[in-house]
Amino acid sequence: MIADLADEISALPLQPYTQLVLQAELVHTVLKYAPLYYVQREPVALAHFRCRVDQKDRIPNLYEKVFQKILPGLLQTKSLHDPMISLEGADYSHFKRFKYEPGTAPTYLEETYGLDIGTSGENSVNVGRMIHDDFSYVDQTSTLLREWHWPWG
Question: Distance between alpha carbon 5 and the CA centroid of its chain, in Å?
């Protein structure tokens, strides 16, 4: 699967590849800072993530397929060195469903790479679940601007 994904990324022309890198960086930045904003103003907003991305065509193209596949892994990797900012003592109870239950967090990062990521579940966030919670490509021309919420609805 990794080799297939690598081939798909290699097949992207320069412009969509650049878009992939920059869009992943944008999503990381939003996921790093936005929860801090919402937990202080509207904690219930952390219960649901809605991600809408402008589609290129009626049928998902190669870029769209690759972006959706690789985004969770890219974000997880980035978060190891540049984690989401949180506020101690704030009400993150609505965000609970995006955290791994104790004992269910993946252990391969610790076992294979020796990275201590807190696999107890207390601070381990399921980035894939956040991204795929409500992810879809939409036609910008037929979607009202008020329907665009990214990543919170």
Answer: 18
* Contact indicator for 117, 80 with CB cutoff of 8 Å: yes
User: Percentage helix, strand, coil, to 5, in the chain?
Assistant: 55, 5, 40
Return d(Cα 58, Cα 118) in angstroms, integer: 41
Residues near 7 by beta carbon (within 8 Å), at least 6 away in sequence: none
pTM for the model stands at: 0.79
Q: How far apart are CA 50 and CA 138, in angstroms?
A: 12
Rg (CA), the chain: 17
Provide the pairing of β-strand 135-138 with 51-54. parallel
- In order along its 153 residues, the chain shows pLDDT tens digits of 889 999 999 999 999 999 999 999 999 999 999 999 999 999 999 999 888 888 877 788 889 989 989 999 899 888 888 888 889 999 999 999 998 887 777 787 788 777 776 655 456 788 889 988 888 888 776 655 444 454 544
Amino acid (1-letter code) at residue 103: G
By three-state DSSP, how is residue 136 classified? strand
